[in-house]
Amino acid sequence: MADVTAETAATRQVSFASLRPSREAVVGTLAVLAFLVLWQVAPSMGWVNGRFTSRPTEVFFAAIDVFMKDDFLFHARISLTEFVAGFALAIVVSIPLGVLLGTSKIARYLIDPPLMALYIAPTLVLLPIMVIWLGIDMAPKIAVVFLGAVFPIVLNTMAGMSEADPRFLRMARSFGATKLDIFMRVLVPGSLPALLTGIRLAVGRAVLGVIVGELFVSQAGIGYQINLYGSAMRIDRLLVYVLIVSAFGYTLTILVRSVENKIRDWRSK
Amino acid sequence: MAQIEIRDLGIDYRKPKSNEVFSAVDKVELSIEKGEFVTIVGSSGCGKSTLLMAVAGLVNLSRGSIKIDGKEVTGPGPDRAVVFQEASLLPWRSVRGNVKFGLEMQRWSGGDLNERAMQMIRLVGLGRFSDYHPHQLSGGMRQRVNIARALAVDPEVLLMDEPFGALDAQTREIMGTELLRIWERHKKTALFVTHDIDEAIFLADKIVVMGRNPGHIKEVIKVDLPRPRDEAILDSDDFHNLRKRLRAHLAEDMSSMQLVKEVA
Questions:
Q1: What ipTM does this complex have?
Q2: Helix axes B110-123 and B139-152, enclosed angle (nearest 10)
Q3: Which residues of chain A does B77 touch, with a Cβ-Cβ cutoff of 8 Å?
Q4: What is the pTM assigned to this prediction?
Q5: Which residues of A touch B (CB under 8 A)?
């Protein structure tokens, strides 16, 4: 059993290596720094018009302004409410639907093609209809978030369920597993990584739904603010809100991915 | 009466595209006594795995019958457990979780379940690795887990489908010796499919040689090598003679396959 000890040693080495900053991280940080410096000096050198590009320092002070007195929390709460409501609704609907589609061939034949079509079509085109149906309050944005998030979760859950390794199914049956056993102990844990991939993809689409929805029809929210500062040519404040949105989406995606990686660990080989 | 009685067994498959029927196994007659270690050997495509899966109750019979302790096989049952070739361990479960799987199907729970699983893990020599996941184990260790999972449910008959087929020659030899050590304790009836001649002889009380087109039994050879066995018997005269005999069988099969190819 000498191979065992060798393998444990190898794992230990890997964990040491990960403490040192990787070349990827160093290069990435340097690139960002270089970009910021260039952005800062470009208007003063006359390379670009500062009115249209702003500067990192201006954006920084605008950020302080935004957080201190711009009703930031008020707008953020509205956007966040739309996001959470739409996303929660999407999860509640999409997981059971994905499970049904993944375990029943007939259901799959029935609704797979229209589902695919809806997934590929940008759901934002439905926004005008949503406004007619639901008014201009939070409801149409919640609907757009829901529509954006629901399809990637359905499709990934479905794939995870229906593409279960037949060898696992045969093994389970050999031990006398019932249909419920197979579902609970093979299909559900086996499709968890796919489900999380679906959720991760849905985050991006949902964030897009909130902001773009608010850009078009709203009386408040982050998207509303972006629209406002855009028309007022306040590039610095506009960029602050853009950064907030991207930081939010990025953080959420990283969070889901880290759970995903943890669960996927055992699949690495 | 023998413990396993296979009578006039035939298994047909329908090819998915052409819809034509072909026979994987035909006219198989075989009796296996309680406590016997039987190996099934043959070149690929001779239906040896199909035969094993039929005994496991995982494929439908087209003709004939399989009886275990006088009871007709109609599906999987707690009297049998299968050790699969590879990649049948659930990757999200630890060694212990995997060994528990079969026990959970038989509604074991709590402390009994845990204790039984640990006992089996120690039996196959993996006591220190009970919390490891399959991807952290070598191929040989994974097959030890596979064996522990099957033994845990305390089956009357242990069915093994080329369990060491994916291992390198040296590990395979070690695993064979290990398997016999474990088997000697309870002497469960064992059915072991392999295409490795040495492995077939080393483990067996009885070797079933299968041929193809359709899969059928060519000969059943009794092995009278003394037990307990170790690698030393690989060099004995009896072993050499058996090896020669099996080689001749398989060579015959290969040459007939060659002929088919040339005609086609």
A1: 0.89
A2: 130
A3: 176
A4: 0.81
A5: 1, 3-4, 7, 11, 165, 167-168, 170-177, 181, 185-186, 189-190, 192, 263, 265-269
